[in-house]
Every structure is written in C-alpha cells, then in structure tokens.
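Q: What does the assembled structure look like for these inputs?
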Amino acid sequence: MSAYFKPLPNPSLTSRPFWEAAKRHELKLQRCAECGKFVYYPRDRCPDCFSDRLEWRPVSGRATVYSYTVVYRAATRLFADAPYILAVVELEEGPRLTTNLVASPEAMRVGMPVTVFFDDVTPECTLVKFKPA
Amino acid sequence: MSLKRAAAITGLAELKPLKEPGELTALKLIATVAAQAIEDAGLEKRDLDGLLVGVPFSDPGMLYPAVAAEALGMRPRMLNIVDLGGASAAGMVWRAAAAIEAGMCRAVLCVMADLNRLGEQRPPLVSLHREFELPYGNFGANCGYALIARRHMFEYGTTPAQMAEVAVAQRKNALRNPLALFNDRPLTIEEVLASRLIVDPLHLYEIVSPCSGGAAVVVAAPEIARRGPHPPVWLLGAGEYCDHSTITYAPSLTSSSVKAAAEAAFKMAGAAPRDIDLVCPYDCYTITVIVTLEDAGFCAKGRGGPFVMEHDLSYEGDLPCNTHGGQLSFGQAGLAGGMSHVTEAARQLSGRADARQVKNARLAYVNGNGGIMSEQVSLVLERER
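A:
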C-alpha cells in the first residue's frame, strides 16, 4: 500500500473534539445549549444566537445528498489520481457537510439517503465520508 | 445618504488577456493599465487622489495599496485594497463614489491586474478551508459551481443545453471584441456539451480560462467627470451582500445573495430590471449567469434556463449580456476578470463599443460575484443624459 499523500486536516483548539471523535469512528457535532441548533464547522460561538455554550453531541450519521459533483479533472494534482465524488450532505440534525461520497457515479441522485463511514486514511487521521444508506 | 450620481466612471482601460505572460509582473500590468485609464479620463496622474487596488494572486503581500501607490508615484488621500474576489471591481466603484461623496478625495483609480502561470502556486487557503474542505478535494471554484449547477438542475429542471447557451451567446459577442481571448470562431451548444466534462455537470467550455491581464477605471466627482473627453457613466445605484464564505454554509445553493445586492442597487437607482438595456453579470461559469439573472429579478426564480434560450443575449439582442464575451470568452485574468464587466458596461454606455455597440443603451446592470456565490455587489450605471 502506498503512503497517503493527500492533504490532511490540522485540527485547532476549537475543532479537535470533532477529529478525535472521528478517530473513534463517532460523528460528533457541536450543539448550542441556548438555542438547540447543531453547528458545523466547529465554531467558537453559535452562528445563530451567538452563545458560547456549544456542547459536543453524537449525531446519527444519517443524511441526504444536497448536491454532488463527479470531479473528473481536479484543480490540484493531489487529487488527480482518480475521479471522485464531492458532495454536500444534509444531516438529519440539520447542518450540511462537504464530504466524499463513495458510490458509483451512475447511482448518484440528489436527495438520496446516505450514511456516514469513517476512513482511517493514516494511523493519526480519520476522514468523515458517506456512502449510500 | 445615497450615492446616486455621486460620481461617474470617466476613464477605462483593459489589457488584452495573455495566455503566456512571459516575464511580465503584476505591478507592470497595473502600471500599464493605470496609465491607459488615466489618459482615457483625460486626466494627469497628479489629478488622481484615491487608489483602490486588488492584491494580485500572483504577488500576495501585506500593505499592497502603498506598494502600488509608490510604484505608480501616487500620493493618495484615500487608499485601500478591496478583497471581494470577483466582486472586488464592482465593490471598488461604490467605495470610490462613497469616498468622493464624503469629500475624502475627488478622483479614484480602481485597478486590478494579475498573472496566471501554469503550475504556479495559488495563495494559501484560510485555515478552515484547509481543515474541512481540502482533505475532501474541494479545492478552487470548480467544485462549488458544479454543486450549484447540479442542485439547480434538480430543483428547477435546468438542462445542460440551457447552461451551454450562455457560453454560446457570449461567444457571439466576443467575435466582435478584438481583445477577447477566444474570438476566432463561434460556438454551438453541441460543441459545448461535447467538450470535456471537468466537474460534472460542467464542461470545459463552461468554465473560465485562466490568463493574465489587467483592467482599470477612473471614478471621479461630477465636476471632473463632466470635463472629460468621454460621456460620464454615472453610478446610479449600488448594493452589496454576503451570506456565506464556504459553499457548505450557503443558506441555499440555488438562491443567492445577488437578490439582496440587486434589490439595494435598484432601489438606490430608482430603477427596475425592466428598465435595463444591457447586463454584465459575473460569469465564472455558465450557471453563474443563470442564477444571477434570476436573483437580480430579470426572470422568475428557477426560470433562468428557459430565459436564456428565449432571449437573445447578443449585442444585437433583446437583452445584451456580457457584450465583451464575458470572462468565458474574454478570459479571466485573476481578479481583473471582474473588472471586465464594469469596463464593458461603461464602454457601452459611453458609446464606445464599436462593432458590438448596443443601440440606445441608457442603463446597465453589473454584478460582481466573489468566491462561490459569496460576496455580491450589484451596480446600476447610467449613460450621461
């Protein structure tokens, strides 16, 4: 197996719990203790009510495809090895995530149900991806 | 306070886009195009007391306005960068007018130039994009606009042929523009759809071609503008809005903040889309034009696809659109690409568009769009009456 050469996240003070959960194969998002909304990306204050009472909560990992594209020609050589599906999925809990869908391009539909899986791309890092439910 | 007729575009210039910039530098392009725009305005450099500049992707650095002012030998009373991506040029025009209206300066050089060399590194991404987008291959603008196009097709039944028509109509305009990068032959919808699929559903000919170049306008106080060699092009209305940076956080992929920006611009202008004689919507991709025309109110939401098929977007049509060819055919010289919509509208309204002149053009709508439908700036411009 060749070494993983694609860019990896560099977690911050704010986002570290997200990536640590992913490494344990859990999907956790912040939830605002004031207004109850789930938040993604990890933030320092609730984008809605501006409260700083953001708490990490597990979420279902169930989502639908909001939109997707099959990238045949990547804008960077780092992703030029093969076509890939970039998607925005909408979680059952509300927030949208940019992610990769691992599915055949022909099977892709906007609105299709998908579910999270965890791709341990290196011993240190796990990416959050989705596949058809 | 309104900026209605507070200032006018009185000089303009754009450089012919180049695919091979050789040893040119961004500062050299800035100096070249600045000199042309100042001359076009019938002014001397010493008459310019304001400077708005974009930081070139190819020469990023801090404190760029003073670097540019020094290189040009200017001593501005107002200087700044405008960092709104493709909306920077339109953003400069109203900021210049606001500074003039406030009495801070009287004639502002708005200038952008950039180089695109194959294989050259782009500036670093902000940390959040590096952390949550790049690992999944969401890099550059292609993916974001493909996501928008796909969602627009899903919600409204927009077809690939309708999107392709935008590139086809704008190419017809480019055939009349000697400066355009692609002006040697017309395009057909079939050719666009047969070009390589880059990011499904967008094809090669629906995506701007990176190149090098520059563009500039001089925005001046009314008494200066009226003395110029060309008819002044008045700022009648302006509006700006931003509701996201990363496309993941756009409240909607298909309804953009063009709506808020355009509404503000039309309100200030006391005009409506039906009054407009030509449009210059930012066109990084074909879908961008369709979404912009919808959200600016030229057709009902979701009707942009049929709309571009039903209307003639050429310089001789019923809704002339990007008569310079748009960035799709003119070329996108980095940030300067967004200035081409401003210079073209001003060129048309001052009656200087030669073989592609729109007859009796009085009002133009210009939209600048930054990032992935993020920063939006709309302008309504008016020919001297």
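DSSP finds one helix and eight strands in chain A.
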